[in-house]
Amino acid sequence: MCLDEWTKKSLTASFLGISCCFYDPVDSITRHIVLSIQQIQHPHTGEMLKDAVTETLSEWNIDSTKVLMLVTDNGANVVKAMRLLSEEAAAAAASTSSTDEMGDLEDEQAESGENDLDEETSDEDLADDCCEDELDFPYIAFRHMPCMAHSLQLVVKKTFSSNHCSIVSKVRALVAHIRRSGVAVQMLLNLSGKNVIMDNATRWNSSFQMMKRLSELRTSVNQVTQAMKIDSLRVAEWDELASLVNLLEPFTDQTNLLQSDAQSLSYIIPSLINLQYHLQNFKWP
Q: What local confidence, expressed as pLDDT, does residue 34 receive?
């Protein structure tokens, strides 16, 4: 199952989406289906999110044992909701197990007189029991896994808040200046057929797209800024921007791959290996 929240910029409405991914053996494909999209009220507490998941599962008559994993972002309230779900399910399972054990104990005591002469257990039976125990992996109710694509975006944000914060701020200011001027936008369109892109804090990869587009339009942007007498980037800053784009492009590619509707866990390790190889071989000028 997947869980995600969305809030309007004005904070006047918030929505919670709950979906599920599963393998369809009939058509031999992976399916992604939306279970519910519901408007939620502030504050978005862990308890409220937990109740929303429980309500959705009940509405679709989905038993908790059928939920192999819950994938969410790394928000503290969402993480708390997943923990509460797991603890609640574990407590219910423990209560049921205790009741079953009491019943089994009573049955054993009642039949103890009839089983004094049980047959000896063979070595093969013992070996079979051991093998079964080794293959019997413990079931964890509502196992939680942070969204890999979201985790990659947190890594990218670390880059923006590090030594490259200055160049990112300058790029954002230059893009904003151009987009505020209809004359500058028209000149840029006449020269390149494209316009600069402004990033959005809540949209993944938008900062990368902003920097990549500006780097691609370097010559045209310099012509526009010179004609409009607008301060542009220095040569060293343009070079730093190009290097930053090359550094972050593989992160964008892997994010786009991992955030698709029907990906499996098998894609995660290759993605991490590819990114690790990229970082090990990347040479900053």
A: 92
Are the beta carbons of 178 and 221 closer than 8 angstroms? Answer: yes
Q: What average pLDDT score do residues 194-219 get?
A: 92
Is 120 inside a domain boundary? Answer: no
Q: What is the CA radius of gyration of the chain?
A: 28
Count of the separate structural domains present in the chain:
2
The whole-angstrom separation of Cα 245 and Cα 213 is 10
Residues 152 and 173 in one domain: yes
The phi, psi pair for 270, rounded to 5°, reads -60, -35
Q: Residue 5's closest CA among 59, 46, 54?
A: 46
Q: Which is nearest to 238 in space by CA: 208, 217, 253, 224?
A: 217
Peptide bond into 43 cis (omega under 30): yes
- What local confidence, expressed as pLDDT, does residue 165 receive? 77
Rounded Cα distance between 145 and 71, Å, is 5
